[in-house]
Amino acid sequence: MFRNIQIVLFSLVLVSSAGLSDATRAGYPEESLKVRRDALQRVYGGNETLHYSISWTGGVKIGDLRLEISTDSIKGNKITAKVTDYGLFKLFYPVDDFFTTFIDFYQRLPYRYEVLQREGHGRDETRRLTIYDQERLVVRYQRDDDEPLDVAISGPVHNEFSSFYITRCLTLDPGEVPVVPTFADKRRHEVDVNILGAEEVGSMFGKVSTIRVQPKMTFRGLYDKDGDTVIWFTDDVCRVPVKINSKILIGSLTAELVEYHNSLCPEYSVRGR
Q1: Residue 56 and residue 86 in contact, taking contact as beta carbons nearer than 8 Å
Q2: What is d(CA 66, CA 50) in angstroms, rounded to the nearest whole number?
Q3: Could you read off the pLDDT of 111-160 as tens digits, one per residue?
Q4: What distances in angstroms separate CA 238 from CA 17, 32, 71, 80, 105, one per listed residue?
Q5: Where are the domains of the chain?
Q6: CA 124 from chain center: how many Å?
Q7: By the 8 A CB rule, do 112 and 134 touch?
Q8: Is this prediction's pTM over 0.90?
């Protein structure tokens, strides 16, 4: 159960990029998505920081998740994520994981993904490297010093992080069922995403109007998962993800936003509560 702190991270970023027609599903530029251009500018252009406190059923804090997106020279954006344990959780399963995704400016698709995981009492270290050739439709995956594995894919793919950021910029109209092209378990998957509608929820900013999104994941991915996940985005141009809830085998995990900064969203840019 204790390792399931990672479920929230994985579920948080598995939602993706849009309801695509069959004609555009095999290869799509940004123009084929139902994107809000104003949201696209805010999400990718403001050097944003998202800091979440992760708690188990009953409000017991067990970890922290920090996500940052910044401009990476002239080629695209860099997304970094760090997951750490907290409090008594360290006694059961220490966690110190770091993820870096590089995405291009044009399609917001990943071209490089680095993972460094230090977990358990021995702090065993695992490194993973994934290279995405979105034009040749080949993904190269390597773990530690193993031989690289080249996997042919049927169309462009996001990873867990690039999908999360582009999804925030979509229209997200109720009744739509966006499709997620996601590379996981060494192959391409298409995951349906349900748009559940509007809801007012409490947050570090007070009561805010949100859009609820629920990805339907049918594969393991980086981490085990045992139930549905719901994500709450603010219903405005900034699309701030204020809360994530993920069911697990015993109870549920909730990630609540406790720190936020984005230079292009000054109405929300406060350093913590």
Answers
A1: no
A2: 6
A3: 999 999 886 656 678 899 999 999 999 999 999 999 999 999 999 998 88
A4: 17, 21, 17, 19, 19
A5: 2-261
A6: 24
A7: no
A8: no
